[in-house]
Specification:
Blueprint: E1 11-14, H1 19-31, E2 35-39, E3 47-48, E4 51-54, H2 57-64, E5 68-71, H3 75-88, E6 92-95, H4 102-112, E7 118-120, E8 126-129, E9 133-136, E10 145-152, H5 155-167, E11 172-177, H6 188-196, E12 203-209, H7 214-225, E13 231-236, H8 260-269, E14 273-274, H9 281-289
Parallel strand pairs: 1-2, 1-5, 2-4, 5-6, 6-7, 10-11, 10-12, 12-13, 13-14
Antiparallel strand pairs: 3-4, 8-9, 8-11
Helix pairs in contact: 3-4, 5-9, 6-7
Protein backbone atom coordinates (compact mmCIF):
# COMPACT_ATOMS: atom_id res chain seq x y z
CA UNK A 1 0.00 0.00 0.00
CA UNK A 2 1.20 3.53 -0.67
CA UNK A 3 -0.04 6.98 0.21
CA UNK A 4 -1.35 9.38 -2.48
CA UNK A 5 0.65 8.15 -5.48
CA UNK A 6 1.98 4.81 -6.75
CA UNK A 7 3.00 3.01 -9.93
CA UNK A 8 -0.65 2.74 -11.01
CA UNK A 9 -1.43 6.47 -10.67
CA UNK A 10 -2.32 8.03 -14.03
CA UNK A 11 -0.63 11.40 -13.88
CA UNK A 12 -1.00 14.48 -16.06
CA UNK A 13 1.00 17.71 -16.04
CA UNK A 14 -0.86 21.04 -16.19
CA UNK A 15 1.41 23.59 -17.83
CA UNK A 16 2.99 20.64 -19.65
CA UNK A 17 4.66 22.48 -22.54
CA UNK A 18 6.05 25.42 -20.52
CA UNK A 19 9.72 25.45 -19.50
CA UNK A 20 9.16 24.36 -15.87
CA UNK A 21 6.54 21.76 -16.80
CA UNK A 22 8.71 20.34 -19.58
CA UNK A 23 11.86 20.13 -17.47
CA UNK A 24 10.24 18.40 -14.50
CA UNK A 25 7.94 16.20 -16.59
CA UNK A 26 11.01 14.83 -18.34
CA UNK A 27 12.64 14.10 -14.96
CA UNK A 28 9.48 12.37 -13.73
CA UNK A 29 9.22 10.25 -16.90
CA UNK A 30 12.93 9.30 -16.58
CA UNK A 31 12.22 8.23 -12.98
CA UNK A 32 9.55 5.83 -14.25
CA UNK A 33 6.51 7.82 -13.17
CA UNK A 34 3.36 6.95 -15.12
CA UNK A 35 2.83 10.29 -16.90
CA UNK A 36 -0.08 9.73 -19.29
CA UNK A 37 -0.20 13.21 -20.83
CA UNK A 38 -0.42 16.90 -20.15
CA UNK A 39 -2.61 19.95 -20.49
CA UNK A 40 -1.82 23.18 -22.33
CA UNK A 41 -4.86 25.09 -23.65
CA UNK A 42 -4.62 25.57 -27.42
CA UNK A 43 -2.14 22.74 -27.94
CA UNK A 44 -4.58 19.83 -27.69
CA UNK A 45 -4.00 17.08 -30.24
CA UNK A 46 -0.22 17.55 -30.31
CA UNK A 47 2.47 15.45 -28.64
CA UNK A 48 5.11 16.59 -26.16
CA UNK A 49 7.87 14.40 -24.68
CA UNK A 50 6.14 11.54 -26.46
CA UNK A 51 2.90 12.07 -24.52
CA UNK A 52 -0.46 13.46 -25.70
CA UNK A 53 -1.34 17.09 -24.99
CA UNK A 54 -4.94 18.03 -24.15
CA UNK A 55 -6.73 21.39 -24.14
CA UNK A 56 -8.52 20.69 -20.84
CA UNK A 57 -8.21 18.44 -17.81
CA UNK A 58 -11.65 16.99 -18.64
CA UNK A 59 -10.27 15.82 -21.99
CA UNK A 60 -7.35 14.12 -20.23
CA UNK A 61 -9.67 12.38 -17.76
CA UNK A 62 -11.91 11.21 -20.61
CA UNK A 63 -9.19 10.10 -23.06
CA UNK A 64 -6.46 8.64 -20.79
CA UNK A 65 -8.24 8.13 -17.44
CA UNK A 66 -6.08 10.66 -15.55
CA UNK A 67 -6.60 10.56 -11.76
CA UNK A 68 -3.63 12.66 -10.55
CA UNK A 69 -2.26 16.01 -11.70
CA UNK A 70 0.81 18.10 -11.06
CA UNK A 71 0.46 21.84 -11.67
CA UNK A 72 3.23 24.06 -13.11
CA UNK A 73 0.89 26.89 -14.13
CA UNK A 74 1.96 30.55 -13.51
CA UNK A 75 0.68 32.04 -10.23
CA UNK A 76 -2.04 34.22 -11.81
CA UNK A 77 -3.73 31.17 -13.35
CA UNK A 78 -2.82 28.41 -10.89
CA UNK A 79 -5.93 28.63 -8.68
CA UNK A 80 -8.10 28.24 -11.78
CA UNK A 81 -6.00 25.21 -12.75
CA UNK A 82 -6.63 23.67 -9.31
CA UNK A 83 -10.39 24.22 -9.60
CA UNK A 84 -10.44 22.88 -13.17
CA UNK A 85 -8.70 19.68 -12.03
CA UNK A 86 -11.12 19.24 -9.12
CA UNK A 87 -14.10 19.86 -11.39
CA UNK A 88 -12.85 17.25 -13.88
CA UNK A 89 -12.75 14.54 -11.21
CA UNK A 90 -9.00 14.40 -10.52
CA UNK A 91 -8.43 12.78 -7.11
CA UNK A 92 -4.93 14.04 -6.22
CA UNK A 93 -3.93 17.60 -7.18
CA UNK A 94 -0.28 18.45 -6.53
CA UNK A 95 0.50 22.16 -6.96
CA UNK A 96 4.13 23.20 -7.28
CA UNK A 97 3.45 26.86 -8.19
CA UNK A 98 4.76 29.44 -5.74
CA UNK A 99 3.31 32.92 -5.24
CA UNK A 100 -0.39 32.23 -5.88
CA UNK A 101 -2.34 35.26 -4.52
CA UNK A 102 -3.93 34.47 -1.15
CA UNK A 103 -7.38 35.63 -2.30
CA UNK A 104 -7.17 33.16 -5.22
CA UNK A 105 -6.24 30.31 -2.88
CA UNK A 106 -9.14 31.13 -0.53
CA UNK A 107 -11.48 30.73 -3.50
CA UNK A 108 -9.81 27.50 -4.69
CA UNK A 109 -9.67 26.07 -1.17
CA UNK A 110 -13.38 26.65 -0.60
CA UNK A 111 -14.20 25.24 -4.03
CA UNK A 112 -12.34 21.94 -3.61
CA UNK A 113 -13.97 21.28 -0.23
CA UNK A 114 -17.10 20.43 -2.20
CA UNK A 115 -15.21 17.98 -4.42
CA UNK A 116 -13.90 14.46 -3.80
CA UNK A 117 -10.21 15.27 -4.12
CA UNK A 118 -7.06 16.03 -2.17
CA UNK A 119 -4.85 19.06 -2.78
CA UNK A 120 -1.14 18.98 -1.94
CA UNK A 121 0.51 22.42 -1.87
CA UNK A 122 0.75 24.98 -3.32
CA UNK A 123 4.39 26.06 -3.10
CA UNK A 124 5.50 22.50 -2.39
CA UNK A 125 8.07 20.03 -3.77
CA UNK A 126 5.42 17.35 -4.41
CA UNK A 127 5.03 13.72 -3.38
CA UNK A 128 7.26 10.71 -3.97
CA UNK A 129 6.68 7.02 -3.40
CA UNK A 130 10.20 5.69 -4.14
CA UNK A 131 10.65 3.30 -7.09
CA UNK A 132 7.01 3.89 -8.06
CA UNK A 133 6.12 7.53 -8.69
CA UNK A 134 7.84 10.89 -8.33
CA UNK A 135 5.20 13.59 -8.72
CA UNK A 136 7.20 16.71 -7.99
CA UNK A 137 10.56 18.44 -8.23
CA UNK A 138 12.55 16.45 -5.67
CA UNK A 139 15.82 14.71 -6.64
CA UNK A 140 14.64 11.12 -7.07
CA UNK A 141 18.05 9.50 -6.52
CA UNK A 142 18.01 10.53 -2.82
CA UNK A 143 14.92 8.41 -2.06
CA UNK A 144 15.08 4.65 -1.57
CA UNK A 145 12.12 2.43 -0.78
CA UNK A 146 11.57 1.55 2.87
CA UNK A 147 9.31 1.98 5.89
CA UNK A 148 9.71 5.63 6.97
CA UNK A 149 7.13 8.25 5.95
CA UNK A 150 8.09 11.93 5.71
CA UNK A 151 5.84 14.99 6.08
CA UNK A 152 7.49 18.36 5.57
CA UNK A 153 6.80 22.03 4.94
CA UNK A 154 10.29 22.39 3.45
CA UNK A 155 11.52 20.90 0.20
CA UNK A 156 15.23 20.89 1.02
CA UNK A 157 14.65 19.45 4.50
CA UNK A 158 12.56 16.67 2.92
CA UNK A 159 15.54 15.64 0.81
CA UNK A 160 17.93 16.05 3.75
CA UNK A 161 15.78 13.83 5.99
CA UNK A 162 15.39 11.20 3.27
CA UNK A 163 19.14 11.15 2.66
CA UNK A 164 19.84 10.63 6.36
CA UNK A 165 17.23 7.89 6.71
CA UNK A 166 18.69 6.05 3.71
CA UNK A 167 22.28 6.42 5.00
CA UNK A 168 21.16 4.85 8.29
CA UNK A 169 20.07 1.78 6.31
CA UNK A 170 16.34 2.51 6.14
CA UNK A 171 14.16 3.85 3.35
CA UNK A 172 11.03 5.83 2.58
CA UNK A 173 7.43 4.73 2.01
CA UNK A 174 6.14 8.10 0.85
CA UNK A 175 7.45 11.64 1.33
CA UNK A 176 4.87 14.43 1.25
CA UNK A 177 5.90 18.07 0.85
CA UNK A 178 2.84 19.99 2.05
CA UNK A 179 4.07 23.47 1.07
CA UNK A 180 4.95 26.65 2.93
CA UNK A 181 2.11 29.01 2.01
CA UNK A 182 -0.49 30.35 4.48
CA UNK A 183 -3.31 28.47 2.69
CA UNK A 184 -2.55 24.90 1.66
CA UNK A 185 -4.70 21.91 0.88
CA UNK A 186 -3.32 19.03 2.95
CA UNK A 187 -2.20 19.98 6.46
CA UNK A 188 0.53 18.43 8.59
CA UNK A 189 -2.17 16.60 10.56
CA UNK A 190 -3.77 15.24 7.37
CA UNK A 191 -0.42 13.94 6.10
CA UNK A 192 0.63 12.45 9.47
CA UNK A 193 -2.76 10.78 9.75
CA UNK A 194 -2.36 9.20 6.30
CA UNK A 195 1.12 7.87 7.08
CA UNK A 196 0.23 6.64 10.57
CA UNK A 197 -2.67 4.76 8.95
CA UNK A 198 -0.46 3.23 6.25
CA UNK A 199 0.46 -0.37 7.19
CA UNK A 200 3.77 -0.16 5.29
CA UNK A 201 4.95 2.89 7.27
CA UNK A 202 6.62 1.98 10.58
CA UNK A 203 7.79 5.47 11.56
CA UNK A 204 6.92 9.04 10.56
CA UNK A 205 9.27 12.03 10.30
CA UNK A 206 7.40 15.33 10.70
CA UNK A 207 9.31 18.48 9.71
CA UNK A 208 7.61 21.74 10.62
CA UNK A 209 8.54 25.35 11.12
CA UNK A 210 7.65 28.44 13.10
CA UNK A 211 4.31 30.10 12.40
CA UNK A 212 0.76 28.78 12.48
CA UNK A 213 -0.79 25.85 14.30
CA UNK A 214 -0.27 22.97 11.85
CA UNK A 215 2.24 21.02 13.94
CA UNK A 216 0.27 21.54 17.17
CA UNK A 217 -2.87 20.19 15.47
CA UNK A 218 -0.94 17.15 14.21
CA UNK A 219 0.56 16.53 17.68
CA UNK A 220 -2.86 16.77 19.32
CA UNK A 221 -4.32 14.30 16.82
CA UNK A 222 -1.39 11.91 17.35
CA UNK A 223 -1.78 12.00 21.14
CA UNK A 224 -5.55 11.46 20.95
CA UNK A 225 -5.19 8.64 18.39
CA UNK A 226 -3.27 6.51 20.90
CA UNK A 227 -1.01 5.34 18.07
CA UNK A 228 2.18 3.57 19.08
CA UNK A 229 3.79 4.24 15.71
CA UNK A 230 6.82 6.47 16.46
CA UNK A 231 6.86 10.03 15.13
CA UNK A 232 10.05 12.10 14.99
CA UNK A 233 9.57 15.88 14.94
CA UNK A 234 11.78 18.80 13.96
CA UNK A 235 10.79 22.48 13.97
CA UNK A 236 12.80 24.85 11.75
CA UNK A 237 13.28 28.55 12.44
CA UNK A 238 14.40 28.62 16.07
CA UNK A 239 16.58 31.70 15.53
CA UNK A 240 14.09 33.63 13.36
CA UNK A 241 13.04 37.05 14.69
CA UNK A 242 9.39 37.37 15.77
CA UNK A 243 6.99 39.14 13.44
CA UNK A 244 9.00 38.65 10.25
CA UNK A 245 8.16 36.28 7.40
CA UNK A 246 11.10 33.94 6.83
CA UNK A 247 11.25 32.33 3.40
CA UNK A 248 7.87 30.62 3.47
CA UNK A 249 4.84 32.88 3.42
CA UNK A 250 3.33 30.86 6.28
CA UNK A 251 6.43 31.04 8.49
CA UNK A 252 5.70 34.02 10.66
CA UNK A 253 5.47 34.02 14.45
CA UNK A 254 2.14 35.60 15.32
CA UNK A 255 1.69 34.41 18.91
CA UNK A 256 3.53 32.72 21.75
CA UNK A 257 2.50 29.24 20.53
CA UNK A 258 3.98 29.89 17.06
CA UNK A 259 7.60 29.87 18.24
CA UNK A 260 9.93 26.91 17.74
CA UNK A 261 10.34 26.43 21.52
CA UNK A 262 6.58 26.37 22.13
CA UNK A 263 5.97 23.97 19.27
CA UNK A 264 8.73 21.62 20.43
CA UNK A 265 7.16 21.49 23.89
CA UNK A 266 3.73 20.69 22.42
CA UNK A 267 5.29 17.89 20.32
CA UNK A 268 7.17 16.42 23.29
CA UNK A 269 4.05 16.54 25.48
CA UNK A 270 2.21 14.59 22.78
CA UNK A 271 4.73 11.73 22.78
CA UNK A 272 6.64 12.79 19.68
CA UNK A 273 10.44 12.29 19.60
CA UNK A 274 11.76 15.83 19.06
CA UNK A 275 15.22 16.55 17.62
CA UNK A 276 16.88 19.96 17.97
CA UNK A 277 18.80 19.83 14.70
CA UNK A 278 17.94 18.40 11.27
CA UNK A 279 21.31 16.60 11.44
CA UNK A 280 19.84 14.31 14.15
CA UNK A 281 16.83 13.05 12.16
CA UNK A 282 18.45 9.94 10.69
CA UNK A 283 20.05 8.85 13.98
CA UNK A 284 16.74 9.29 15.84
CA UNK A 285 14.90 7.18 13.23
CA UNK A 286 17.50 4.43 13.60
CA UNK A 287 17.21 4.64 17.37
CA UNK A 288 13.41 4.29 17.52
CA UNK A 289 13.21 1.59 14.84
CA UNK A 290 15.89 -0.57 16.45
CA UNK A 291 14.08 -0.70 19.82
Amino acid sequence: MSVLVNKNSKIIVQGFTGSEGSFHAEQMIDYGTNIVGGVTPGKGGTKHLGKPVFNTVSDAVEKVGADTTIIFVPPAFAADAIMEAADAGIKVIITITEGIPVKDMIKASNYIKRKDCRLIGPNCPGVITPDEAKVGIMPGFVFKKGTVGIVSKSGTLTYEAADQVVKEGFGITTAIGIGGDPIIGTTTKDAVEMLVGDPDTECVVMIGEIGGQLEAEAAKWYKESGSKKPVIGFIAGETAPAGRTMGHAGAIVGGSEDTAQAKKKILKDSGIHVVDSPAEIGKKVAEVLSK
